[in-house]
Write a structure and sequence with these properties.
single chain, mainly beta, Thrombin, subunit H, Pdz3 Domain, 2 domains, elongated
């Protein structure tokens, strides 16, 4: 591959590890960070343009029957399922830059429909002037980027092939995914095309740090220990039924190395499906923002802040000119005495839905559209009041 190993890389404040988007670029990895929104986010290393996974195996003993049968996977007939779904997975090669600054990248994508639309990560195709798509049967065609959602690190590439030549993936309901559930990934880590790795869902509702394109955290991501590395980005995370429940996007590595250590993140399939029609239509996608930062209350910090309630989100800052500012929400002011400064509003509900953490508040806001009005239940000076805010477009 031509090009050098230059990339963009940042460290999340207060965290020792690098946040990396795992894209193979110029023979190396494109390191890209993701930074927070209204809520603090966990640092993640994102597989840009390529996500990889290491196969894992486990020996399980059925204690109930004393049957010491060795199982290579928790998914029954994994080879058969892989064979069935692999035609829906593609390798996406990109060329960006010109002359001495030319760089090549490799990522993964998944066929979304019979019309030739392929879902991938935005960071896989960001800045590309040439996109090539390769299928498992060896077919190679040119691709065109027709839509994107940088805020969720998603994009759509279109290819022209006979409908009968395309096998769309089946998308599952990511809201039904449970921790401990078996999953597997198919992707192109380290240019090892169409590599299969397996694991489990390790956690739900994770927030990535703000991604490189928009600075906006991706909400509701799935955490997995199925190995993903540079080259896996944009590829599918399948459940045991062969349904896509996530799009592999990022990894976290506290050592700062750009390789997988057991903590990977995937954009949920429901998030992808929500915005897929608009991406296919080439529409610009905007995301809402309330414009606050806050702390999740508990009995200790509530006392420090001088508020009577112990559940809710205590506002520590309100961005000037934001939806929250225009609605009259108030942030803490004055000097802190060993904890939170006094004087802040406490948000306890959004449209009647209880809010107990800043992460929950941010996720609820994310479910609305720019321009929507939301009713906030707020505790101020010991009294409850209702405040209406009109959500604005995310600006960082």
């Amino acid at each position: 591959m031509a090009g050098d190993l230059t990339g963009r890389s940042w460290l999340q404040a207060g965290f020792l590890g690098a946040v990396v988007v795992l894209a193979m670029v110029g023979g190396g990895f494109l390191a890209v960070a993701v930074v927070g929104d209204d809520a603090p986010a966990a640092v993640a290393t994102a597989p840009a343009g390529a996500s990889g996974t290491q196969a894992t195996s486990s020996t399980q003993t059925d204690e109930a029957s004393n049957d010491a049968t060795v199982s290579l996977t928790a998914i029954e007939d994994l080879p058969g399922i892989v064979e069935r779904v692999s035609p829906s997975v593609v390798a996406i090669s990109t060329v960006s830059g010109t002359g001495a600054r030319t760089a090549q990248g490799l990522g993964t994508g998944v066929v979304a429909d019979k019309q030739g639309h392929i879902l991938t990560n935005y960071h896989v195709i960001e800045g590309a002037r040439q996109v090539t798509v390769e299928f498992t049967d060896g077919t190679i065609v040119q691709g065109t980027v027709i839509g994107s959602d940088p805020g969720n690190d998603l994009a759509v590439v279109r290819v022209t092939l006979p409908q009968g030549a395309l096998k769309p993936a089946t998308f599952g309901n990511s809201d039904e995914v449970k921790p401990g559930e078996s999953v597997f990934a198919v992707g192109n880590p380290f240019a090892q095309k169409f590599t299969v790795t397996s694991g489990i869902i390790s956690g739900l509702d994770r927030d990535s740090p703000g991604n490189t394109a928009s600075g906006r955290p991706v909400r509701g991501m799935l955490q997995t220990d199925a190995a993903v590395n540079p080259g896996n980005s944009g590829g599918p995370l399948f459940n045991a039924a062969g349904e896509v429940v996530g799009i592999n996007t990022a990894i976290e590595n506290p050592t700062g190395q750009r390789v997988f250590v057991g903590v990977g993140f995937a954009v949920s399939s429901n998030t992808a499906q929500r915005f897929l029609p608009d991406m296919i239509a080439g529409k610009a996608i905007a995301h809402p923002q309330l414009g606050v930062s806050g702390a999740s209350l508990n009995e200790i910090n509530a006392q420090q802040a001088g508020v009577d309630v112990t559940k809710g989100v205590y506002l520590t800052s309100v961005a000037t000119g934001s939806a929250a500012d225009r609605a009259g929400l108030r942030a803490a002011s004055g000097a802190a005495t060993g904890g939170l400064a006094p004087g802040g509003d406490v948000v306890t509900k959004i449209d009647g839905k209880e809010v107990t953490t800043i992460q929950q508040l941010a996720k609820l806001v994310d479910q609305y559209n720019v321009g929507d009005q939301i009713k906030l239940t707020v505790i101020r000076g010991g009294s409850e009041l209702q405040v209406t805010a009109t959500l604005q477009e995310w600006t960082g």
